[in-house]
Specification:
60% of the residues lie in helices and 4% in strands. By secondary structure, it is mainly alpha-helical.
């Protein structure tokens, strides 16, 4: 689950992935359920502090849903994030190369 969540964010600020493809509005709810399940397991097992990943998934999944619903108002997802004051960093550096 953690790998799936990390992978879904690794293209930030270009977009959110659902598998190898960009996520659709209809898939966001299912992805948020995966975050809920992962949070539950993460807290129960106490193996790592995954709170940053969980918070980022919630933030970026919701932002991407709003972006997709308003595509005509933005050049791209990075433009959406910037115009809405949503801070981000290139995600591939966050989890894979620490």
């Amino acid at each position: 689950m953690k790998s799936y969540l990390e992978f879904s964010l690794h293209e930030i600020p270009s977009g959110i992935l659902d598998g190898m493809n960009g996520v659709s509005v209809s898939a966001i709810l299912d992805m948020l359920h995966i975050v809920d399940e992962f949070q539950y397991l993460s807290e129960r097992l106490s193996l790592n502090d995954d709170s940053a990943l969980i918070a980022d998934c919630r933030k970026f999944y919701s932002a991407y849903e709003n972006y997709l619903k308003n595509l005509d108002s933005f050049k791209n997802f990075a433009d959406y994030l910037n115009k809405n004051g949503i801070e981000y960093e290139v995600y591939s550096n966050t989890y894979y190369y620490e």
